[in-house]
Amino acid sequence: MTTADIAKMGLYDALLSVKKDRVLAAVEKARTVMRPTEIIDALAVGMQEVGVRFERGKMFLPHVISAADAMNAAVAVLEKDLPRGGAGKKLPAVVIGTIEGDVHDIGKTIVSTMLQCAGYDVHDLGRDVPSRAFLDTVKQHDARLVGMSALMTTTMRNQMEVIGLLTEEGLRPQVKVMVGGAPATQAWADKIGADGYGENASIAVRKANELLQVGEVAQ
Ligand code: B12
Hints:
The protein is an alpha/beta fold. The protein contains 9 helices and 5 strands. Helix 2 (20-30) packs parallel to helix 4, helix 3 (36-55) runs antiparallel to helix 4 (61-79) and helix 4 (61-79) packs parallel to helix 5. The chain is globular, with a radius of gyration of 17 Å. Bound molecules: cobalamin (B12). Cobalamin is lined by residues 44, 47-48, 50-51, 54-55, 61, 64-65, 68, 101-108, 110-111, 147-149, 151-154, 178-183, 198, 200-201, 204.
């Protein structure tokens, strides 16, 4: 087992302890042997396991909230270490948010942070974002990409609504759409006519670069 594997396990265990100080200590250790994006991806795996344990009744809402808080604190610490891309060139405006009716924003915030670090002009609308707000912000900033997160099967359909609004307003040809969040899949993206789906934040940045034909940045 490599030191990076050990650090990865440490991150996972710390997140499952749902203790912020343990998570931040594990992040400090991992920083010496792992890239910041790898650390975030490893914590995201831990967060998914928190979800599984919550579903099985082995963890309760206060645990989920503490884990979410620890995850957000870790991402805030790692943000300054993330590779900065787009040096010298101005990358297009991107609008991102969690869809209406949905307050889950951990994954969305990770994607948003990594897109910013890659050099995009990101307009993060937060969570529970009304469909029309995506459209208004696209117009306001002449955005070239919309990223929508949904964590619930009941809110996913709002991603389709935003695509419908973009089409109605004649903006669809120049605005790419990327969807994500745990219940999203490539099949879902195809079904609703999105241009891309990203399973995690690193893939989301790669996909955005591909869709907007922007050169790769170091990860
Ligand atoms: C944390 C959490 C919460 C926290 C949210 C805190 C926060 N600030 O986000 C709190 C406690 C507030 C919460 C509340 C609720 N939750 Co909740 N929650 C979760 C949990 C455990 C983890 C979600 C998470 O943060 N994952 C970690 C992140 C890193 O992963 P991620 O979001 O998937 O993001 C990654 C990728 O998907 C991708 N990605 C994400 N967004 C985007 C966007 C784009 C454009 C791209 C390309 C990629 C991308 O990149 C990210 C980074 O790798 C999930 C369980 C699960 N299995 O997902 C349940 C879950 C999503 N919640 C659920 C439910 C039901 C609720 C509540 C209704 C509970 C209740 N009864 O009150 C409320 C929601 C109220 C509302 N209106 O929204 C259900 C949804 C079930 C369903 N039918 O869909 C789940 C699945 C749990 C369950 N099985 O019961 N929840």
